[in-house]
Amino acid sequence: MYIVSAILLIGIIVLAVTDKKEEIKEEKIEEEKINFESDSTINLLRTKTGQIEAVDLNYYLLCVVASEMPFKYEYEALKAQVVVARTYLFNKMSKNGEENADACDSYTHCQAFNDLENLKEIWKKKGFTDNEIIDGENKIKKAIVESSGEVITYNNELIDAVFHASSPIKTENASAIWSGKDIPYLKSVDNIEDETYERRNTTNEISYATFKNTLIDKGYVFDLSKEDFANIKINEYTESGRVKNVSVGSNLIKAEDLRTMFSINSTNFTITNYEDKIAFNVLGFGHGVGLSQVGANEYARQGKSYKEIIHHYYTDVDIVNIDN
């Protein structure tokens, strides 16, 4: 009798667990159907086709944030990125957008934008499960809804909410990157980041021929001897400790120009000279101005709110609701 009762009890427990799993599964499906559409659309230029498409504002923000920041990052970091993305967009729109549209889908001109279905395929190829993808999508949707209408301003004007991947130690002053233009809210600040970030330390090795031919093609030099190549050195540093310019023969070349020309991850580098090649030993990823995504994630881990993260990276700004 006791054996039968035990068997029946186990059966009830199994059924209960199964039912609970089904409930969780149903909740996941319902979460996937969360309606977070906004009352506004933007005109998005599709760079591959040249077509302009009306896109829901919140869907645009979802796809931008999911394209720009890993959905596995902390919620408060994602929420900060949402407010940054919204501000970046509205600031762009206030300056007449992009080629008869409000924005385009290219990170080279605006913000990175991949449609949600494409993103899901990318995530699946990276090994994420369906439930992880649903959770990540809903985490960003929640951040969009909870920060609805919030933007960043300085002196009652939308800021140029630039951001980048990683700046170990310090971010950079805007004046050091963009033609000496001082932007009061884009100042260098101390930064803490996860030291295990995979792109924290990288090395770019460039051959003599490639370096020489590229500089000639871009009009930086008329010629470059092997002797001058072997004696390339850092000439000056910025206030944040990044490289400002580099001596190449009798020429001074901005480090930021070298970064873009040779796909160097950051201007925070040292140089190792060889006879037939040069190596840039790099710390960090990106131009270094504004919000650091790896840093934002670290501060979120430490318990900082999205507003605290924003105020850390953008000096003396306000977070306001544009709807008001």
Q: Could you characterize the architecture of this molecule?
A:
By secondary structure, the protein is of the alpha+beta class. It folds into 2 domains: 41-195 and 288-321, no CATH class; 201-283, no CATH class. The protein has 10 helices and 16 strands. It has helices at residues 2-32, 57-68, 75-94, 116-125, 130-146, 208-217, 226-230, 255-261, 293-301, 306-313, and strands spanning 41-45, 52-56, 103-104, 150-154, 157-158, 163-164, 169-170, 190-191, 201-207, 233-237, 243-248, 251-254, 269-273, 277-283, 291-292, 318-321. The strands form 6 sheets. A 3-stranded mixed β-sheet has the order 2-1-3. The protein has a 3-stranded antiparallel β-sheet with strand order 5-4-16. Strands 9-14-13 form a 3-stranded antiparallel β-sheet. Helix 2 crosses helix 5 (130-146) and helix 3 crosses helix 10. The radius of gyration is 24 Å and the shape is globular. Mean pLDDT is 89; it is low at 1-32.
Average pLDDT confidence is: 89
Assign the structural class, choosing from mainly alpha, mainly beta, alpha/beta, alpha+beta, or little secondary structure.
alpha+beta
Low-confidence stretches: 1-32
| Head-to-tail CA distance between termini | 71 Å
What's the shape?
globular
Radius of gyration of CA atoms, rounded to a whole number: 24 Å
How many β strands by DSSP?
A: 16
Instruction: Please give the domain count.
Output: 2
Pattern of helices and strands: HEEHHEHHEEEEEEHHEEEHEEEHHE
Total of helices: 10
Bin the helical content: 25-40%
Largest sheet: 3 strands, mixed
Strand order of the largest sheet: 2-1-3
Q: Give the strand content.
A: 15-25%
